[in-house]
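The passage that follows is intended for readers who have already worked through the single-chain material. We present the inputs for a multi-component assembly, then the predicted structure in tokenized form, and finally a short commentary. You are encouraged to pause after the input and sketch how you expect the pieces to fit together before reading on.
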Amino acid sequence: MRRAALLLVAVLVLASPAAVRADTTDDERGLPARLADTGLYAKGLEISADVVPFSPQYPLWSDGAAKRRWIYLPPGTRIDATRPDAWEFPRGTKLWKEFSHGRAIETRYLSRGMDGIWRFGSYVWNVAGTEAALAPASGLRDLSSPASSKEWASGARYTIPSENDCRACHEGAPVPVLGFSALQLSPDRDPLAPHADAAASAVNLRTLTARGLLSGLPPALLAKPPRIAASSPAERAALGYLHGNCGNCHNSEGPLAVLEMTLAQRVGSPTSASTVLDSIVGVESQFHPRGAPDGAARIAAGHEATSVIAMRMATRDPVQQMPPLGTTAIDVEAMRLIGRWIESLSPSR
Amino acid sequence: MNSLKMLLRIALVVVASYVRAADPAPVAPPADDLQARGKYLVSTSGCHDCHTPWHLTPEGPKPDFARALSGHPEGLDMGPAPQPSQPWLMTVGATNNAFAGPWGVSYAANLTPDRETGLGKWTARTFIDTIRTGRHLGRGREILPPMPVPVYRNFTDQDLAAIFTYLQSIPAIKNRVPDPRPPVASVAQVH
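Having made your guess, compare it with the prediction:
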């Protein structure tokens, strides 16, 4: 009887999806089991010559993680930028983003198959940093620190996002590629953007066009690169931060359009910055955080303390925090910028 | 003879009991009638248990269908929630719409099509995304217990669309449900 039970357990273990994923075959999402099999590396950890590194000017805050990003386009293909705010990426496109806290923790992977379907996954690095394996579609919660806690910014918990988490952010925008866009790759980079790489991106709109990787971009955006039409440098950086961290969900095209609050900038619209400001400054919030006055506005000009957007950015209470996922540590540098901008707004606006 | 009569009486009572207990089973509506299918699913999947306020009747507590699916009553101040302690981890409010536990306090949402306080501005995609991801509006905060998202996310898209179609057809009730409250331990994090 005991032998039969052991046999049953063995059969179940061998038949489990985890056991299947231990080899190098694709999982049920159609993703390779190892990062090494996605095409990012040529040999060992040497980055392949046919992937292109890039850095968006308004990066997503991820609890202070250092990031590296790459894109791959199949030979002979190019991105169609005819719709300047909804680029069409060719089938076979791949993007990677590596997250590090002292050492590489995970590399997120976004690929568009030859069937046109976008797939999302994340690869978790081993402690030695020699190999990364595909995380389950359900993600991994509260990854324990394998080394000194000093490696983890602010002692934050680390969570590998689930596939649903990936989709929650990436499918809220017109296209699922978020950091590779006209505004993010503008050669006219914002010097006040929090957490942006000091060096200019390895590629931008002009170099991509010159290399034949981007076509159809309206000529006006090459002649005069996209820049947020703000009334001050602080406002430009603040709106850029909100675009990069919030605009993927809070826009006027996606499922959250019902909230009638857009934080996404659109390079194809000359009034985009005004549209954003009109939807938040002095507009009553539908969410009422504890401690907020009755009728509190999304942004209360001149009053950071009662601006609901700032209040929700300044908490990590999971019910109230914004963004609602992908971060467990408050972005102090961004809060200083947002606060300075709100305080500079005239209440008579 | 008396024994035979007694047996017949017993048999009649048994048959009568059986007939009374065996009410005709509901017939599932055709799958292509989304609204009817949605009504069927809502009425068989426990939605009213939490999203319709309960009231006390002479027959005991029952859902108040005059406020069907309108969520936790706006004016009902619950006061501080009792602290959860093992093995009793969850406390339920009298109307069966407020739930206190280790996650804080959650309130059942207004599912009626009121545009300001319910699902009036939602689309079928918003609704499906919400159930599928377990996140408010499909991309916000996590939906809190006791909402059985792990069960409901097994519905097909067609069934979720049917439920949404039905919910959009019921009377709109203006009732602004409070936002959830965090567990006491995390309140200190709020700035």
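Commentary: Residues 1-23, 146-151 of chain A have pLDDT under 50 and may be disordered. The radius of gyration of chain A is 22 Å. How closely did your sketch match?
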